């Protein structure tokens, strides 16, 4: 957001200087006047290209965590329900927030609301913190005069979404740790231990077995090109991430992931749980169905599912029911489509969507346990084979020397 350096006098006549954030100069003046300042001068601060670039690509720049947003929403819902004005509530929460990045966002939101901007518009200026779903629900709450109820529903939704995300992340931690530790041990054996055996074997004065020679050559290659080998995964990671940010790359990878044997099933179940929970929350909050589907599509996290929802949105615009275009896509299970259809017929769509979301939260738990139970032995078997092969290759020359000694 643009920043303006100002010189002003306060209500005591004291000359003060500072910096204020605002979209345009007029809004900056209005902010200062709302604080009973008499503006003497106001100049926009131009960020240098280098500073802007560093800020954009800084990997250590603080972000907004989902857990922080969830806690903030629950606390704000409690304050608003208790009758505390929104600006006063934001002031109270601003003092309690520990994240510097999130504190700065809330400060900006509070200042914008104080200057007369609608709550949803103030939140919309900070897309890194507040998603389209968040803004849409707050806007519906403002319009309907039920902001406290909307904040309560939003808090419940964010807590459920954060719990689901934690389950998925937690399921991946153990396999990744096992793979990382096993890879490090294997690399240490190949680079640190095997060269020592090579010196011992060279003193035998005989040709080594073929498997042992192959292992020695691999060890030499790793030892001489260790930095290149370590850099390759890092380069591939950043290159893959850059490719995924392109429309073609994202569509291709999302299409692949959703069709994987075990992972694909989990991704589908997570998508169904997220879709039904989000859509049900938006509809229950009074957001129009077409706007709700547009928001749900953008927050789906998978390009294939996003296109499916957008296609359903266009069909609904033309008069079709929700279940029909979703059925044609072939991604959503029949049980989900049947329950959505029943919800449409009975007029209790949001209730049905909530029930589906609860059911698929449990399905995600089951899928995560199944995936973990498959990954763990698979990783152990692969690493056992690798380390076992290394050990056998290293002991083959010793076995041959023993046999020669017995014959002699």
Task: Describe the protein.
By secondary structure, the chain is mainly alpha-helical. The chain has three domains: 55 residues, Ubiquitin-like (UB roll) (Roll), CATH 3.10.20; 94 residues, Receptor-associated Protein; 249 residues, Up-down Bundle (Receptor-associated Protein). It is 75% helix and 5% strand. Helix 3 runs antiparallel to helix 8, helix 15 packs antiparallel against helix 16 and helix 16 runs antiparallel to helix 17. The termini are far apart.
Provide the gyration radius in Å.
Answer: 30 Å
Please tell me what the overall shape is. extended
The pLDDT mean sits at 79
Class computed from helices, strands and strand pairing:
mainly alpha
Itemize the secondary structure elements and their pairings:
Blueprint: E1 3-9, E2 15-21, H1 25-34, E3 38-45, H2 49-57, H3 66-81, H4 86-96, H5 100-114, H6 119-124, H7 132-144, H8 147-202, H9 210-224, H10 226-244, H11 247-257, H12 263-284, H13 289-298, H14 303-317, H15 323-329, H16 334-346, H17 349-407
Antiparallel strand pairs: 1-2, 1-3
Helix pairs in contact: 3-4, 3-8, 4-5, 7-8, 8-9, 8-12, 8-17, 12-13, 12-17, 13-14, 14-15, 15-16, 16-17
Provide tags for this entry.
408 residues, mainly alpha, Ubiquitin-like (UB roll), Receptor-associated Protein, 3 domains, three-stranded antiparallel sheet, 17 helices, 5% strand
